[in-house]
From TrEMBL:
Protein name per its UniProtKB record: IS66 family transposase ISBcen19
PANTHER family referenced in this protein's UniProt entry, alphabetically: BLL1576 PROTEIN
A Pfam family this chain is assigned to: DDE_Tnp_IS66_C
InterPro entries linked to this entry: IS66_C (IPR039552), Transposase-related (IPR052344), Transposase_IS66_central (IPR004291), Transposase_TnpC_homeodom (IPR024463), Znf_dom_IS66 (IPR024474)
Domain Transposase TnpC homeodomain: 42-115
Length: 511
């Protein structure tokens, strides 16, 4: 605590400086209050809309599976908003004894595993021996594929007969405070939904076959709480990616429910990852309600580097903020491939042969050191690329304006500088295939979950999928990774969150 200031000992200049500092502090506090008030108003409105959707009359426009996916998204969204509101509030939310929900006891037939929590010493601070007078037991539900078990956390009560001191081991910290799921069960639900793309209504049936039907509303609440807890890791992963000078970017459409309209609308999942030759193996997905370029500008705000992307106009505005555009040779090749597949175009075939030679060289230099890769590109690939450019220019002068082959040639000629920048930088890949490979799990998921239940649900899915896919890229089992992270998060210092990122993670079991 700062010691009081003797105003009488200050001269006029010092008093003015002190007044300015106090006014600045007041302005900062006022700004924080206005931000919190605005955010609380936004969240309160969003909560009211969600509750109206959840408890109002059901729309006949949704079929049963659509309604199930909408319900699970709403359940998760409501809990996530409650946690955000509690964090913004100066006081934690209190529950009266009357309104406190009563937990249904876990089935007695489930196997129990006792985990003892006792004081480190049975000697009181006064020197007397403590006597065990009882215990508190809390039960947590755990799950391994097909089998439920119950962890019985037994906390003995020890008392000193002389000074009447009561000692008891603290309650183990949990991601969901006072909840029944273990980190293992939560990891199972998350990986099933966002790694294996199993919706919650299907997980409910799977759990029922294992002996305990957990309502999808409960599963949704767990996911909402975990999403809030895991978001700092995704934010840190984004910062780790933006520290690299070569990035990939791509986007893919995802359907998103519009509850008020009773149908879906097109949203997009944007994908960002370090260059294929960068040491960091990670990916961050960013869910947005549109394909507008503002979403890429927001994600990459302040970043200046080289971006591998397609010719989509949404990326063009990034060039003004110091981003260098890198073309994708696979996109250029695809246009000629489509022409050759449809009408056996001889010009398209010749272009494919040229590009094929460039890719053959890339396969040779893939595992080489940067200096060796650059030398071979300069010596061999540069010559082929120059010949391809000269040939394309000649062919473009001969073909009809507006023809399909003219459009294919124009795409490559217009982007030639961006397409060939990789020849002068060994860290730059020839195409965007590395990023497109990270989108494939999303394409698989679309066949299962079909659409996102809400914008918030889409962002939560993008966050968890970022951790799941990044764990895979680093050779980790996503279940083992998330289980360990969820166990450690409650007591892990926020300043050391980087230690839990997939590329730096070391299991606590290995310590």
């Amino acid at each position: 605590m700062n010691s009081p200031i003797d105003l009488n000992s200050l001269n006029a200049d010092q008093l003015r400086e002190l007044a300015a500092q106090l006014m600045m502090q007041v302005a900062e506090k006022d700004g924080e209050i206005r931000f919190k008030d605005t955010r609380i108003a936004q969240l309160t409105h969003e909560m009211a809309v969600l509750k109206r959707l959840k408890f109002a009359a059901r729309s006949e426009k949704f079929d049963s599976e659509q309604q199930s996916l909408l319900d699970e998204a709403i359940d998760a969204d409501i809990v996530a908003i409650e946690h955000e509101l509690e964090a913004l509030s100066s006081r934690p939310k209190a529950q009266s004894a009357e309104n406190k929900p009563r937990r249904t006891p876990l089935p007695a037939n489930l196997p129990r595993i006792d985990i003892a929590h006792e004081p480190e010493s049975s000697t009181c601070t006064c020197g007397c021996e403590l006597k065990r007078i009882g215990e508190d037991v809390s039960e947590k539900l755990d799950y391994t594929p097909g089998v439920f078990t119950v962890e019985r956390h037994v906390r003995g009560k020890w008392v000193c007969a002389k000074c009447e001191t009561l000692i008891q081991a603290p309650v183990p910290a949990q991601v969901i405070d006072k909840g029944i799921p273990t980190a293992g069960l939560l990891a199972q639900v998350l990986v099933s939904k966002y790694g294996d793309h199993v919706p919650l209504y299907r997980q409910e049936r799977i759990f029922e076959r294992a002996g305990l039907a957990i309502p999808r509303s409960t599963l949704g609440q767990w996911i909402g709480q975990c999403g809030v807890q895991l978001q700092p890791l995704v934010d840190a992963l984004r910062q780790a990616i933006l520290a690299h000078r070569v990035l990939h970017a791509d986007e893919t459409p995802v359907a998103m429910l519009s509850p008020g309209k009773g149908k879906t609308q097109r949203a997009y999942l944007w994908t960002y990852c370090p260059g294929a030759f960068e040491e960091l193996k990670a990916v961050v997905y960013d869910f947005a309600e549109s394909r507008a370029g503002e979403h890429a500008r927001s994600f990459l705000s302040g970043w200046q580097g080289q971006l591998v992307c397609d010719d989509y106009a949404g990326y063009k505005a990034l060039l003004a903020q110091g981003v260098t555009e890198l073309g994708c040779m696979a996109h250029a090749r695809r246009k000629f491939f489509d022409l050759h597949a449809s009408n056996k175009s001889e010009i398209a075939q010749a272009a494919l042969e040229y590009i094929g030679q460039l890719y053959e060289i890339e396969r040779e230099v893939q595992a080489l050191k940067p200096g060796e890769r650059l030398a071979i590109r300069q010596e061999r690939a540069r010559r082929i690329a120059d010949a391809l450019h000269q040939w394309m220019t000649q062919q473009r002068a001969r073909v009809s304006e507006g023809s399909a082959i003219a459009k294919a040639l124009d795409y490559s000629l217009r982007r030639w500088v961006a397409l060939t920048r990789y020849l002068d930088d060994p860290q730059v890949p020839i195409d965007n295939n590395w990023c497109e490979n990270q989108i494939r799990p999303v394409a698989l998921g679309r066949k299962n979950w079909l659409f996102s239940g809400s914008l918030r649900a889409g962002k939560r899915a993008a966050a968890v999928m970022s951790l799941v896919q990044s764990a895979k890229l680093n050779g980790h089992d996503p279940y083992a990774y998330l289980k360990d992270v969820l166990m450690r998060l409650p007591t892990h210092a926020a300043s050391r969150v980087d230690e839990l990122l997939p590329h730096r993670w070391q299991s606590s079991n290995s310590n």
